[in-house]
Design brief:
By secondary structure, the chain is α/β, with parallel strands linked by helices. It is built from eight helices and seven strands, in the order ααβαβαββαβααββα. It has a seven-stranded mixed beta sheet with strand order 3-2-1-4-5-7-6, sandwiched between helices. Strand 4, helix 5 and strand 5 form a beta-alpha-beta unit. Helix 1 crosses helix 4 and helix 5 packs parallel to helix 7.
């Protein structure tokens, strides 16, 4: 685990360089979202572990007593993420790891949260790795989280929409198509307008910003009805 932890730390500057130079997305923008929402959070859910660096380095008033849930589909990245948080001042006993598909979250996945709500929920660089269209996968995630979100909960993160085949032969387009063909990216049907639409259906306040080839989003003031209930 120590070797994997160090390897992930060594790869981070490379990943951030690609993010900034290829995808034209300054990593500081995601760091700013964590700093904005995490300061007084006591119960936090991190969906996916790709952005755990930002959680580990965010401005948090009392990280030692923060209850953190890390959710990912594989055990190894969950363990690495937990190690990184502990190394940055989080209490080991208050970090829970949940191996689960983000679109299959239910009460069995989070039994210890019964009667509790998350103050903050982050989805950094994870939506583009989940199959299905944005109008399918994001509502599934939010419906699963519905018992754990109240009017004070804050949702935020980043996503990488698909690039259209508009005739421009660019490095970014070639790279994205290669990542899609390998299965690393599952964003063929993702677009910014769909993120805006879904967040608008579920939350009273939401904001989506396109930055380079990515988008950041934040939402709060959860509406009482789930989208599936509205459509019934």
């Amino acid at each position: 685990r120590i070797i994997h932890f160090m390897a992930s730390k060594l790869m981070r500057p490379v990943n951030q360089f690609i993010l900034k130079t290829v995808w034209k997305f300054p990593p500081e923008n995601l760091m700013a979202l964590y700093n904005k929402h995490m300061l007084r959070s006591k119960y936090h859910l991190e969906i996916g572990t790709a952005a755990v660096y930002y959680l580990a380095n965010a401005k948090i008033e009392d990280r030692f007593n923060m209850n953190v849930t890390l959710l990912d589909t594989e055990e190894a990245p969950l363990l690495r993420a937990k190690d990184e948080l502990v190394a940055n001042g989080f209490h080991q006993s208050l970090i829970r790891t949940v191996q689960c598909e983000p679109t299959q979250i239910d009460e069995q996945a989070l039994p210890y949260m019964q009667g509790h709500h998350f103050d903050t929920i982050a989805m950094g660089s994870v939506l583009q790795s989940i199959p299905e269209s944005m109008r399918q996968k994001l509502p599934k995630i939010l419906d699963g989280l519905s018992p754990y979100i109240d009017e004070n909960s804050k949702l935020f993160g980043s996503a990488q929409p698909n690039l259209p085949d508009d005739g421009f032969n660019t490095l970014q387009l070639h790279l994205m198509r290669a990542l899609q063909q390998s299965g690393t990216m599952q964003n063929q049907y993702d677009c910014v307008k769909d993120i805006e639409h879904v967040l608008g259906e579920y939350f009273g306040e939401s904001n989506v910003q396109e930055i380079g080839y990515l988008a950041t989003f934040e939402a709060s003031s959860r509406k009482m009805l789930q989208l599936n209930e509205q459509c019934a």
